[in-house]
Design brief:
Elements (H helix, E strand, L loop, with lengths): L5 E6 L2 E6 L10 H16 L5 E5 L4 E3 L4 H5 L3 H7 L3 H8 L5 E5 L2 E3 L1 H8 L2 E5 L3 E3 L13 H9 L1 H10 L2 E3 H6 L5 E3 L4 H13 L3 H13 L5 H14 L4 H11 L10
Parallel strand pairs: 2-3, 3-5, 4-6, 5-7, 6-8, 7-10
Antiparallel strand pairs: 1-2, 8-9
Helix pairs in contact: 6-7
The structure holds octanoyl-coenzyme A (CO8).
Length: 258
């Protein structure tokens, strides 16, 4: 499929989706989000793909939702169009692991998009922020909820109320990103993480993703019960037999996603 606002590259087992609106620092408009969701769904369906990476440019992962597009909308437009609501649901339905590779600005909807991914690897020039308050609005695709879960109430309030940016070092210290690497090494580091993920059983990877995400949704008791049920269910797979046999036979496992 031909996309205008993103570039999709499938190499070996990894699909890399690059946000590509350089003229607007990859601001997220309806077209970009629609194309992103379609590309994610295609990668999720593509049997060759075992891990997905979302990235931007060296200057910006994404500088937020597109302010020019939003500025003209009324409440009724937002409400009737369900602005960005469907895209959120489509994104959350992706089963394969998604890594965000963030360099430069990840602001507003850009920070929210990065947080929707399964984890974030940041370049040392990354800057995160929820500056919507400067525009007379607030975050609208999960920022108040997800950032608070990532970094806690105090820092989240600070970010949402002052609109200040957090650099990569602070983001790592606060638990927003899993690792920070020099900008020049971002591609290499993300590729190596994605390849590592791609070596695993997709069934186990999807189960891990599902269970970790559930930790944000349900009380601990329910999450523990859910994890246990999923853990037991993996014993119905060939990959569990293969993984454990390979360990005992001191060889590399050959997972077949069965
Ligand atoms: N939307 C549209 N265009 C943008 C955006 C954006 N978010 N960010 C940057 N651009 C454009 C600029 O207008 C500029 O275009 P032009 O060259 O035509 O004037 C171009 O990108 C380059 O930007 P700058 O010249 O401003 O570059 P600087 O390096 O000087 O500054 C900044 C970079 C600091 C990133 C600056 O561009 C900036 O502050 N951008 C806006 C950041 C922001 O406020 N983001 C939040 C947007 S609101 C949001 O994300 C809400 C999400 C929830 C929606 C959910 C709906 C349900």
């Amino acid at each position: 499929m031909a996309y205008e606002t993103i570039i999709v590259d499938v190499q070996a087992y990894v699909a890399t989706i690059t946000l590509n609106r350089p003229e607007a620092l990859n601001a997220l408009n309806s077209q970009l989000l629609g194309e992103l969701c379609s590309a994610l769904e295609a990668a999720d369906q593509n049997e060759k793909v075992r891990c997905i990476v979302i990235t931007g440019s060296e200057k910006a992962f994404a500088a937020g939702a597109d302010i020019s597009e939003m500025s003209k909308k009324s409440f009724v437009d937002m409400y009737t169009e369900k602005f960005f609501a469907t895209e959120g649901e489509r994104f959350n339905n992706i089963k394969k692991p998604i890594v965000a590779a963030v360099a430069g600005y990840a602001l507003g909807g850009g920070c929210e998009l990065a947080m929707m991914c399964d984890f974030i690897i940041a370049a040392d020039n990354a800057k995160f922020g929820q500056p919507e308050i400067n525009l007379g609005v607030i975050a609208g695709i999960g920022g108040t909820q997800r950032l608070t879960r990532y970094v806690g109430k105090s820092k989240s309030m600070d970010m949402h109320l002052t609109g200040r940016f957090m650099d990569a070092e602070e983001a790592e210290r606060s638990g927003l990103v899993s690792r920070v690497v020099p900008l020049k090494k971002l591609k290499e580091e993300v590729a190596s993480a994605a390849e590592k993920i791609a070596e695993k059983s997709l069934l186990a990877a999807a189960a891990a993703k599902d269970c970790v995400n559930r930790a944000y949704e349900v009380p601990l008791e329910d999450g523990l019960a859910y994890e246990r049920a999923i853990f037991y269910s993996l014993f119905a797979t060939e990959d569990q037999k293969e993984g454990m046999a390979a360990f005992l036979e001191k060889r590399e496992p050959q997972f077949r996603d069965r």
